[in-house]
Amino acid sequence: MVKHVVMWKVKDTKQGTKEENIQKAKELLEALKEKITAISSLQVGLNFSTRPVAFDLVLITEHKDMEALKDYQEHPEHKKVADFIGEVKLETAVVDFTY
Fold first, then answer.
1. I need a labelling partner for 67 at 20 to 30 A (CA). Which of 1, 20, 31, 41 fits?
2. Which residues are CB-neighbours of 12 under 8 A, at least 6 positions away?
3. Residue 68: which CATH number?
4. Model-level pTM greater than 0.90?
């Protein structure tokens, strides 16, 4: 199995307020589970920490193998969501690992 973890810090404003952009990103990410069969499981979390090093949003997906992760990342629906997040993100951190 492969786990894919992505965290984002979101800009204060871009296509709406920071909170609106976080919520829209969450909804778009959650919708991917029904659209991309290469996803075995998907979780999206919103940060509640007030620490300055904290990220705003996290995505955790599981895939049966590295090929499924690649299929997910190259899927047109994933690219649509990535385009939106690319517009509103300030910073990104990613960890991919097998278990």
1. 31
2. 18
3. 3.30.70.100
4. yes
